[in-house]
Amino acid sequence: METKVESLEGNKVKVTVTVDAADIDGRIGKTYKDFARRYNFPGFRKGKAPRPVIDNALGAEAVAATVTDELLNSSWTAAIEAEKLFPVGGPAMDETELVKAGEPYEYSFTIETRPEIDLANYDKVAIEMPFAEATDAEIEEQ
After folding, report:
1. In which element (H, E) is residue 89 found?
2. How far apart are CA 114 and CA 133, in angstroms?
């Protein structure tokens, strides 16, 4: 997984994450196995249904959507930790596409980070408070 960080205005950064094709293929294969174990497909023992049967029963995009969702949820936190960012809130994901077998997957998100503060010096702050004294008008009023 590769990450690229771009600073934006006002404590925001844009993080671009690229996941290699081998990782995508591994996740797709694992998801097909999970679907084969989770669902019953007529004519096949549990966990033994081939990919075309799963695609016909659940839809060709079901596996890709599941892999994309799991990938986004797990990799954005890993990208933040790898880049040593300190987010203030959750990410605002850019428009994403579904993963494709054999191709690397790239997505980006914007996140607001903790502001950087530079102290000029460590001298003590001195505040001069005016002496609290009652005026003649306040005394007469009481």
Report:
1. none
2. 44
Residues 6+ apart with CB under 8 A from 24: 67, 71, 99, 100, 101, 102, 103, 104, 105
Helix (H) or strand (E) holding 131: none
Residues whose CB falls within 8 Å of the CB of residue 32, separated by 6 or more in sequence, listed in order: 51, 54, 63
Largest interatomic CA distance in the chain: 102
Stated pTM of the model? 0.71
8-56 residue pLDDT tens: 888 899 999 999 999 999 999 999 999 999 988 888 888 888 989 988 8
Domains and CATH numbers, the chain: 2-141 (3.30.70.1050)
Between CA 97 and CA 99 the distance in angstroms is 7
- Convert the pLDDT of each residue in 58-97 to its tens digit: 887 899 999 999 999 988 999 999 988 889 988 999 888 9
Burial letters for 25-44: b for 16+ Cβ neighbours within 10 Å, e otherwise? eebbeebbeebbeeeebeee
